[in-house]
Amino acid sequence: MMLGTASGRKRRGKAISDPGPLPKYTGRFGEQQAERLLWRAGFGPKPGEAAALAKHGMRHAVLSLTRPSNQRLVGPAPQLENGQPIEPFDVWGNDVLWWLDRMVRSRAQLIERMTLTWHDWFATSNEQVNSQRLMINQNWTMRNRCLSSFPRMLTAITIDPAMQLYLSLAGSTKQDPNENYARELQELFTLGVDDGYTEMDVREQARALTGWTYTWNADTGQPDDFRFEATLHDDGVKVIYGHHGNFSWRDSLRLVLHHPDHPKFFVTKLWSYFSAEPLSARDTKAAEYLYVSSGKQIRPLVEAMLMHPTLHAGQRMVKPPIVQLAGMLRGIGRYIDTDAWAWESSQIGQMPFYPPNVSGWDATRWLNTGTWLARFNLTAEMIGQQRALDPSKVKVKADPKAMTKQAIDFWGKPTISAPGRHALAAYAQAAAVDSASASWEREQYPVLTLNALRALVVATPDYQTS
Amino acid sequence: MRQPTCSCNDFDRAQLLRRGAAQAGRGLPVIEPGMPMPAGTGLNRRSFMLSATGMLLSVYGAGRLLDTAAFEAGIANAASTPNGRVLVSVYLQGGIDSMSVLCPVGDPLYSTYRKVLGLPEGAGPTFTEDPRLQWHPQAAPLATLHAEGKVSALPTIGYTDPMNQSHFTSRHYYEVGAMDANLLTGWLGRYLDVVGTADNPLQGLCLDDSLQPALATAKVPVATIDLPSDYSFYAEGVWGPPQDLMYGAFRSLGEVGVRSGDVGLKESGQAAVMSTTLREQLLPFQPAPNATAPALPAGYPTAGDSFPARMAAVAQMLAAGLPITCATVTTDSVFDTHESQASSFTSGLGEAVQTLYAFQRDLEARGLADRVLTVVWSEFGRRPQENASAGTDHGAAGCGFVIGENAAGKMIGEWQGLASGLDSLGNLTETADFRSLYCSVLEQWLGQDAAQIIPGASSLPRVTVVQ
């Protein structure tokens, strides 16, 4: 295919010179550092897991996540409250349970976490797709490529039926090109809003991407047989980023992946999933170099990011809601035994398979007065009547410090800083000791207080963040 | 082959970002850093409202409008702004097809552009100010309010050159009140920064599950709430004094985070502190123990969507004297109708309009109508030329409405016609700039010099929004 460059159009691309590698964290890698790593790159530690991981040292800890030796699911299979198995393809919310179960049980925690990252990156909502089967198929497409190369990922996503339905690519034809996918491909997936492309590029990319269609299967009531048909493709000459050619959909992806603004967008966005603090300009360049020189591989970049000093020693980050939900289950050794988690995930602000829009979830605003309430009430559901202590059956010694420790241990001994522990103990003193005068109060209030303390541990800023 | 699978993206809520700079309110956490702890005024307010609790809850149960006289004290206490005026912003999400709200049936080119989606003449009430336009049948309640002089229609509101057809960018412009991709505060947020106080998060209230960027402030606190009746905390196996004291523990734990010096801990701690404050302010709205869910007052659609319930809640909270200055609400319906537009559009518009009508009547019944002005907006209109999927693609100028007893009731801008009113991309050109509308609302309704709020206000023409 002939490529021409429009006259008068400046090319901004320059060969990137090697700025040297990304820096590596060299400080202490103890239980607390391992705990953070497991929350940032997975769904939190099971009891004892952080201490075990710390023994391997930072580098091997990271590699154990990025190169897992096995991907088995450990623990009982998911079921509903009535003991029946879940039906991920057919029953509302069971798709969420299916994935949440993998988050809780998978030995390959980073694989699930990266799948969540790609789900946010290429946000597709079943609200529009209306097929849990297609959504779960897409989920496997992302999981199977989650650490491969971005060009492979982008190619697979572009022809993914759920995505094609969501962004109107299926049915976009020569006669009626639909701009939806072309716009978000550039704005959200590869370049960033208004960065290096024009409204005309959107229209021309849309033409290059035409030709996809499907058949409505009247028997199943589902779309079926997604395919490319050359007769529906516009094979005329397009002008994209100043290049002329009768571009195909593969050319469309190649052009956007070779766009000089893509590497910076890619590494900046990928990093934002691991840290709320931006990379320095120098480290961004280093990450871009690693990305481009590796042939746009994902795994080497993720490994370098997980070893970066800012990840281990930087500011704390609010846990994404679904990460916290899965991590709470892991912490108390609970598995999928109810469909409550499907609607609870919506309440706390992150229902998998239902991102709010094509730009994914807003990770800078997980917490507000609404989602904070939902996170607290989620804790009540998590503890449940089954795990709540019954004052008619158990006794608790009214010792504020000991009670605080018991409450923290309940969640698998997460790290709670001293000021947080002091605030919990102060509450225990007031509620279990100072409020109790009658003898039945002195017996029962410590039990009620310990129930409340367990909920309050989750309400600490320490637990809400990693 | 085609099913209504649409669509681009629904950008509901304010959950935009994790993207480039053109995101409304980017960088502004819902809970403002450095916000002072709420002062003790909450106690008086709470006790006043507690005394009114019985009446509020009975209205929920009875499902009818309140006797307005009962709330005189509450209204007197409101003092939300010096003149007690309230601005409600209603966002029709997704870019509503203005040509299907006010259909230009009298435009000779209408049937050419809208072969499939066009409505016949006489299908809905005529727009009396320009008989070429006709309300959609589902918009008839707006025509009724218009006939009473309570609706100003903007048939082509927008901005010029370059009209950005990204949902996110265009919405951002509307939210921040400027064509500035990097502006971090919303236009209502900047207004509240001037007139608001440090101890009243309800002054800017977003009824949603996350903050609408228009309310993003730089200084004063604002709040989000899903529905006031829903704001209650629950812990398993906890009651009596250990439960009562638990709420205070929220605050102490939050303060630990606020004082920590760590960005993440502070963000989490501020959420805890604000949630505790909000809980105290909303205590009167809790249904009594064992009460059934609150019912909506008469007239609101009861399909179970959030939008009617939230609008009803705005009226109810204002009636109870809660100190709200600006409230924002978003429709459940997404008007991003790339495919098979007619069905989803019709039901979505029906619910939106019926709710707006019921809200106006609710305010009137409560004696609040002279205090509230409602601005209805969407991020853009859609392309006049319908597409081959019986839908419409992103366009430029679209429609907006100003509703209220004090609304001027006169069209703002005009319908230029399809022959001359399109830009080079085939989209409608604006006849009223959204920033002109904002400046005029600020000055004529809220009594605030727009120069402090809207960038470039001095060079923007003003329109008449208030009688």
List keywords for this structure.
heterodimer, A: 466 residues, mainly alpha, 2 domains, three-stranded antiparallel beta sheet, two-stranded antiparallel sheet, 23 helices, 52% helix, globular, B: 467 residues, alpha/beta, Alkaline Phosphatase, subunit A, two-stranded antiparallel ribbon, 11 helices, 10 strands, 9% strand
Describe this structure in words.
- The complex is a heterodimer of chains A (466) and B (467).
- Chain A has 466 residues and is mainly α.
- Helix content of chain A is 52%, strand content 5%.
- Chain B has helices spanning 41-62, 72-78, 110-113, 140-147, 167-176, 187-195, 241-258, 263-282, 306-319, 341-365, 434-445, and strands at 86-91, 102-103, 134-135, 151-158, 204-207, 223-225, 326-330, 372-377, 398-403, 432-433.
- Chain B has a single domain, classed as Alkaline Phosphatase, subunit A (3-Layer(aba) Sandwich).
- In chain B, the strands form two sheets. Chain B has an eight-stranded mixed β-sheet with strand order 6-5-7-1-8-9-4-10, sandwiched between helices. Chain B has a two-stranded antiparallel ribbon with strand order 2-3.
- Chain B contains eleven helices and ten strands.
- The N and C termini of chain B lie far apart (52 Å).
- Classes of the chains: A mainly alpha (466), B alpha/beta (467).
- At the A-B interface, α6, α10, β2, α19 and α21 of A face α5, β6, α7 and α8 of B.
